[in-house]
Amino acid sequence: MEAISNQNHAPLFHATPPDQFTLLSKHVLSKLSNFLWPCAFLLATSVEAFLLLQNWDLMFHFLLLCFLLLCFLMKHFLSKPSPIYLVDFSCLKPPSYCRVPFAAFLENASMLECFDSESIAFMAKVLHSSGQSEATCLPPALHYIPPKTNQTESIKEVQMVLFPIMEDLLAKTNISPLDIDILIINCSGFCPSPSLGSIVINKYSIRSDIKSYNISGMGCSASALCIDLAQNLLRVHKNSNAIVLSTEILSTGWYSGNEKSKLLINCLFRMGSAAILLSNKKEAKKTAKYRLVRTHRTQRAFDDKAYFSAIREEDSDGKLGVTLKRDLLQVAGETLRENISILGSEILPLSEKFWYGVSVVKKRFIKSEGIYVPNFKTVIQHFCLPCSGRPVIREIGKGLKLSERDIEPALMTLHRFGNQSSSSLWYELAYLEAKERVHKGDKIWQLGMGSGPKCNSVVLKCIRPIVGEYKKGPWADCIHQYPIIAMD
Q1: HSE value, Cβ hemisphere, 13 Å, CA-based, for 488
Q2: What does 199-240 look like in DSSP terms, one character per residue?
Q3: DSSP class of residue 324?
Q4: What residues pair up with 295 in beta bridges, in sequence order?
Q5: pLDDT tens track for 193-216
Q6: 369: helix, coil or strand?
Q7: What's the predicted TM-score (pTM) here?
Q8: Which among 69, 259, 90 is positioned nearest to 175, based on CA atoms?
Q9: Half-sphere exposure (CA, 13 Å, Cβ side) for 326?
């Protein structure tokens, strides 16, 4: 980081720490806008009744109408939130020496005494049917025999996956670490002390008044959840920059037992991380790629069946691992339906809402089969789906009536990089950019699903042309090879 911190920065967005007056003024304006409209309406109604009784000239009625219109416009502008921009993002491209071909993975596993022959055969079957290629990567700690799963190696992995993307994002956006007002880091399975946020703050000598948050235990939905959190914080803290770092530390999640439901994690999860810069500064509009349109979060932890569908627990031998139950797909479907029904009511056109409502009524009173699935492609041009596995991607695509081209970013990300947990959504967006499919005005729906279970949606709108991304980023050396048609 010395190379970056010693540069003479001409930052695009200068840091302005929010003060108490900013927070107070926002609160007062919000309360004022809520109070203004009913008072103005009551006053106008009273005056209008008086004018009618007194038979006053028509001009006074016109002036009253202008007064009402002025009050409406004042309420609109006072209550309208400032736009939040996604300036840019960076994804880690793991080094080639971390690559784990299937044969090497299985050979190393067979040399470990903890796995029996049945477990080796099961992992081989999972790998070959997973939809991953031979180019996916695991951290160096898991290349040792036996794997190194201690605290020291996990900290090394943190530095390996977070520092490069942080530095790349700062360089791409031309901002200094001192310009960061909010820092959010998500990692589901590794929660050290000092925290991941403290590790990053210490590395880059970030300001003492930074607002730092660590999100753990949220699974693959955490990145979308962090965007929602950043949005809420930027609504409060004006003139601020927020950075979100998403990753999963795999060396702490390695399972060394023989329960099949826990062995899946060893086979499916691979290295990856992403850094995202969001800002509510006016200057950000000039360089930002996207504007944040909407976020929505739902969860089903209140239901026991859903809660236990994916859970970290010890096996009968006391070995810790993440259990994935057979009914996980069904639970994911229920969680997804709840999320998209609410999101659809907010973004879909009236025609799609109408036909959905008709189908619900018909199913309830006429007992007709099925409920109409709204066509989200009327408002969304691109989809970034969970990379939990090929069956999950295809099932979600089928449920949303998406084409092969729509689910292509998720399938190709799974193939090239594996399931990178929460950061997979950004590799999919990077794929779309590298293919130069994202155009100004297009909307992208990022859908994150994780243990809990939770489903989080983020809708972005492209606000400028995006070109030349095929030359950089994680897909730079292989985008010409994709899409790979024969994947099933």
Answers
A1: 5
A2: HHHHHHT--TT-EEEEE-S-GGGHHHHHHHHHHHHHHHS-S-
A3: E
A4: 458
A5: 999 999 999 999 999 999 999 999
A6: coil
A7: 0.84
A8: 90
A9: 1
